[in-house]
Design brief:
alpha/beta
């Protein structure tokens, strides 16, 4: 079976109509799986759960597998109640991004183990599988050798998904970096993250792009791209590649990945096309066991 494409959950805070329009377009894209819901901050309430479910219904009617994602950092009882409603939705698979969500789902319904669960070895993957996970998303900082070792001893029925495109979701904090950047307290953030549709780039003292702040989330400044490793990933037995939403050129990004997987476009042509429509430098260092911000040129990999 060919590697499938997934559209990951939206990590930014976009206006309500933009979100609806985005997923209306996504229904026509060659992705097999679409993750929906708020992962970063519960204060982002432009869409309620019923809105996400309405979008899910439309995507499902378009033939997509829909997965409802949960918060990665739970800090309040109200967030637990919302999480329970998501898990008990009855119609769609859920992505557990916090162990509270795993605990709620375990023994009751299957789930996807999200990339924020810190599954760094085979023992943790086995534990999450025994709790009901039918797919797991590898933490973004692991290298291919580590993944191969984990795949060699993973249950054959457990699917594996890799983050393959987008600003890497690196960490979460109880503090809101975007609010602090605006000189505001977290409790009165005024939803300033809505002013930055793909986060705020932070620079080093040498004025080099270093990280991206997105509310309470820290992301990479570079755009992670595993397009060069598609053939290798398929041979390893990976089932799904995740493309993370961005505000620009998403249809083109998805199409490029689809055509490379399908053999209609070469890796070199695909990466050249991606560079033209990306607002940051590309990186793939983590996959090759190097610093995450590094990019290893394709020509070095095939020579």
């Amino acid at each position: 079976m060919a590697v499938r494409l997934a559209l990951g959950p939206l990590l930014y805070y976009w206006p309500r109509e933009q979100v609806f329009d985005f997923y209306k377009q996504a229904a026509e894209w060659p992705v097999d799986i679409v993750y929906l819901g708020e992962v970063v901050c519960s204060k982002r309430r432009a869409l309620k759960l019923d809105d996400w479910l309405a979008i899910a219904e439309e995507l499902s009617a378009a033939g997509k597998e829909v997965v409802l994602s949960t918060l990665a950092l739970v800090e309040a009882e109200s967030e637990l109640k919302t999480m329970l409603r998501i898990i008990e939705n009855g119609d769609y698979l859920i992505e557990a991004n916090d162990m509270a969500a795993v605990n709620m789902a375990a023994g009751h319904r299957p789930f996807v183990a999200g990339p924020h669960l810190n599954l760094y070895n085979q023992e943790s993957v086995s534990l999450i599988h025994n709790s009901g996970a039918i797919r797991w998303v590898m933490p973004v900082e692991l290298a291919k050798e580590t993944l191969q070792a984990m795949l060699d001893s993973s249950p054959s029925e457990l699917e594996t998904e890799l983050f393959a495109w987008g600003r890497l979701p690196l960490a979460f904090s109880a503090r809101c970096f975007t609010a602090r950047n605006a000189g505001l307290p977290k409790d009165d953030c005024q939803l300033r993250c809505g002013d930055y549709p793909e986060g705020i780039i932070m620079h080093s003292q040498e004025e080099q792009p270093f990280l991206t702040i997105n509310g309470i989330q820290t992301q990479s400044a570079t755009t992670y791209c595993l397009l060069d490793a598609v053939a290798e990933i398929a041979e390893m037995g990976v089932d799904v590649l995740r493309i993370s939403p961005q505000p620009y050129h998403m249809a083109e990004v998805v199409e490029i990945f689809y055509e490379v997987i399908d053999g209609e476009l070469s890796v070199e042509e695909g990466i050249e096309s991606l560079r033209k429509i990306t607002t940051s430098e590309l990186s793939n260092g983590f996959w090759y066991g190097e610093a995450g911000m590094v990019w290893r040129e394709v020509r070095n990999l095939i020579s």
